[in-house]
Specification:
The complex is a heterodimer of chains A (498) and B (95). Chain A has 498 residues and is α/β, with parallel strands linked by helices. Chain A contains 15 helices and eleven strands. In chain A, helix 2 runs antiparallel to helix 3, helix 7 runs antiparallel to helix 15 and helix 9 packs across helix 11. Classes of the chains: A alpha/beta (498), B mainly alpha (95). At the A-B interface, helix 9, helix 10, helix 11 and helix 12 of A face helix 1, helix 2 and helix 3 of B.
Chain lengths: 498, 95
């Protein structure tokens, strides 16, 4: 019999409904595997007792014919979704002891449909990072290894605990959050499907804030179908989030067939980057040809402001972060420095010791661009360029239904030797940031392996609120690529999994 | 535009962060690198472009000023580093 942990979310749902195994059995199987692969450091806080209690309740519902959409399915929760009564840290020392008294809307939606939460997943501190190297709780390891080295690799970030856990079968699916690529880039590095919905599709209520005009929750999953299943539950209009969108959710049933006949697919010339490995360009071009052979129309397009998206992002996101993170003052919750004598010292000592280096760097950038004398030159200018980026996409969608690009300009890199130049590290997000700036839905699908055996991904970017188109192209790419997940390919697994 | 040591000191003060001398030096060089890279935003013409604040709403909706939840003082101070009588306790502010 196939191991229960290697099932997809949808396969497990069918298995539970057909009573082939119980929710307690599949939950226990995941808890056992989490313990076995603890060294990946994917979970900050496992919640086994709560998970088994939830699974037991799910088994009763399954027996009584009262199963909900995700009944009894074990998933992982990124540690920036507030969990009532469970420590929620956002990967930061400043929240190391924070126990929310309320549940985030996204995680409540998942609980309301019967999913079983195995624990809280590691992440870059406050979701700031592209390698999961900035967590206060230590780096997460990518369960994949290259075929020419045993060196430990990064799982991507900021949802690096989520991507490592799903890839290593430590949960059936996971939540993530994406501000500039934090779902799609780690999904690519770990050979998974990562979906960033349209801005406003999932409520931000109860999500620890990074950059509020960009933050969006979404799933990391083993398949495109699983991604649709998760999105269907995670998304909702929520009056508690002023930017939540009261939009109808499209029906995914036909989209998931991945029929691309007549689909107009745009290929933007600006996404060919200097120094990008030839194998990524080749993978992208081959996918376009294969889609054309299935009846899609491939159309060359231009998104002329693409090159400005990344510097725009690195003004707007830190500006919003510096403002959002002003709330961490050691007064109401989280870490307080014990030595503070006066209030000014309380703020300074608490923030200086509570935040890590990357978070401090972004607070300083954000404070600088918002400060007197620099606001117009940087922040206002970036907001204007952001509108030009949105205009680029609007013009493109007059000609095409969807846009096809690579997800990242490289595969996973070494934990020990990450780029030291901050700008080089930022380049990880060069292909994911434009869709974030414009609030568009985008999916990354694993499309093949690099020369040294590491996953590479391709991205479909759709018009606003057309997640159905994104899933349609995603499903077609998944079928064409016929990618083998890590645990179907155990020799690629770190520490030679037995 | 290069970022000077004075800029770093000014911004750290505004952000309520203490930096050691070596951290100031490192931030000066890293922020300079980042802001030189950001210079390319001067290329696109934006004189007649309105700044974009949000991709979802033109203006923030305003809630009715009414109490929907209340009487949760204990839950609110539950995470406080120090509290007394359901109030947050901070070091003395006035000498």
């Amino acid at each position: 019999m196939t191991e229960l942990t290697s099932l997809t979310l949808l396969e497990a749902k069918k298995g539970l409904e057909a009573k082939e195994f119980s929710a307690v059995e599949i939950t226990q199987a995941h808890l056992d595997r989490m313990a076995k692969f603890e060294s990946l450091n994917a979970y900050i806080t496992p919640t086994p007792d709560q998970a088994l209690a939830q699974a037991k309740a799910s088994d009763e519902r399954l027996a009584n014919g009262k199963a909900r959409k995700l009944e009894g399915l074990p998933i992982g929760m990124k540690d920036l979704f507030c969990s009532k009564g469970i420590k929620t840290t956002a990967g930061s020392k400043i929240l190391h002891n924070f126990v929310p008294s309320y549940e985030s809307t996204v995680s409540q939606n998942l609980l309301d449909e019967g999913s079983v939460v195995l624990g809280k997943l590691n992440m870059d501190e406050f979701a700031m990072g592209s390698a999961n190297l900035t967590s206060h709780f230590g780096p997460v390891l990518n369960p994949w290894k290259a075929n020419d080295s045993d060196e430990a690799l990064v799982p991507g970030g900021s949802s690096g605990g989520s991507s490592a856990a799903v890839a290593a079968d430590l949960c059936l699916a996971a939540t993530g959050s994406d501000t500039g690529g934090s779902i799609r880039q780690p999904a690519t590095f770990c050979g998974l499907v990562g979906l960033k919905p349209s801005y406003g599709r999932c409520s931000r209520w109860g999500m620890v804030a990074f950059a509020s005009s960009l933050d969006q929750a979404g799933p990391l999953t083993k398949t495109v179908e699983d991604s649709a299943l998760m999105l269907d539950v995670m998304a909702s209009y929520d009056p508690k989030d002023a930017t939540s969108a009261p939009e109808e959710m499209p029906d995914f049933t036909t989209a998931l067939k991945g029929d691309v006949k007549g689909l107009k697919i745009g290929v933007p010339s600006e996404y060919v980057m200097d120094g990008m490995p030839a194998e990524i360009k080749a993978l992208w071009e081959k996918m376009a040809l294969d889609l054309k052979a299935e009846g899609a129309e491939i159309i060359d397009i231009s998104l002329p402001h693409t090159h400005y998206a990344l510097p725009t992002y690195y003004i707007i996101a830190p500006a919003e972060a510096s403002s959002n993170l002003a709330r961490y003052d050691g007064v109401r919750y989280g870490f307080r420095h014990p030595d503070a004598k006066g209030i000014e010292e309380l703020y300074k000592l608490t923030r200086t010791e509570g935040f890590g280096d990357e978070v401090k760097r972004r607070i300083l950038i954000g404070t600088h661009v918002l400060s007197a004398g620099y606001y117009d030159a940087y922040y206002l200018k970036a907001q204007k360029v952001r509108r030009l980026i949105v205009h680029d996409f609007e013009a493109a969608y007059e000609k095409v239904d969807i846009i096809l690009t690579p997800t990242t300009p490289n595969a996973a890199f070494s934990v020990k030797n990450p780029p030291t130049d901050p700008v080089v590290m930022f380049l990880n997000d060069i292909f994911t940031v434009p869709a974030s700036m414009a609030g568009l839905p985008a999916i990354s699908v694993p499309a093949g392996l690099s020369g040294n055996g590491l996953p590479l991904g391709l991205q479909a970017i759709g018009p606003k609120f057309q997640e159905d188109q994104v899933l349609r192209l995603g499903a077609a790419m998944e079928r064409i690529a016929a990618f083998s997940r890590l645990t179907q390919n155990p020799s690629a697994m770190i520490g030679a999994a037995s | 535009m290069a970022v000077t040591r004075q800029d770093v000191k000014r911004v750290a003060k505004l952000a309520k962060l203490d930096l050691s001398e070596s951290q100031e030096k490192e931030m000066e060089s890293q922020l300079s690198r980042i802001f030189e890279w950001v210079e390319k935003l001067n290329e696109p013409k934006t004189a007649n472009i309105e700044p974009l604040v949000s991709v979802s709403v033109d203006s923030m909706p305003i809630d009715q000023d009414e109490v929907r939840e209340g009487d949760q003082a204990e839950a609110i101070v539950a995470n406080a580093p120090e509290s007394t009588l359901n109030m947050f306790v901070v070091p003395k502010i006035v000498e």
